């Protein structure tokens, strides 16, 4: 079956611009996660959705970052007033149910470059 | 707070040799532990996970890992490396929350 997909695969933008990154989870998965992976580092948690609601957004670095999942499926990560330090690979994952023992299935990521 | 330390950002082995990738964690509650592999331009793929029960966990592609509570370790091993094993490997821990905390990763290189 189809895995987690993310679009675009690459995004180049200028400092100060607004960007949206999209994630399509595996069909039927109720939980969705966003992580950020900087060069040479492991992924870092940003936000977790159970259904339509953000159950944990403690990893969002500041109020320029926001994510939605209005219908409990597709999610969009939104970054306002981008900065060069936002350059990273943004990973989305989904799991069938919530709970830490659940396997999270990752998408290929969106590589964001802020010039 | 939970954390993960992967000793050795780069590990090089010869084809056919033992693979040993080290992972130590800290967690305030009994942890769930994961190993993921990342091939270039691909997403993270689960190799194996420990939740409860048997402490020796077998995964895909011949990998296995052993949960040692007394050592707070979850090292990944494979008896015989193959060229196709060259990739980046991440250890992760999950506890009370739903997020995973990842280590910094270990890049495995396999020499012919």
- The count of DSSP E runs of length 2 or more, i.e. the number of strands of chain B, is 12
Helix content of chain A: under 10%
Contiguous low-pLDDT stretches of chain B (5 residues minimum) are: none
Radius of gyration of chain A: 13 Å
Order of helices and strands of chain B: EEEEEEEEEEEE
- Number of separate helices of chain A: 0
Q: What oligomeric state do these chains adopt?
A: heterodimer
**Overall number of strands of chain A:** 11
Indicate the mean pLDDT of chain A. 94
Helix content of chain B: under 10%
Average pLDDT of chain B works out at 93
What's the story with the biggest beta sheet of chain A? 7 strands, mixed
Could you say which structural class the secondary elements and strand pairing of chain A correspond to?
A: mainly beta
The outline of chain A comes out as globular
Class of secondary structure makeup of chain B: mainly beta
Distance between the termini of chain B: 41 Å
| Residue runs with pLDDT of under 50 for 5 or more positions of chain A | none
**Largest interface, C-beta closer than 8 angstroms, per-chain residues:** A-B, 29 and 26 residues
What is the straight-line distance between the termini of chain A? 37 Å
State the major sheet of chain B.
6 strands, mixed
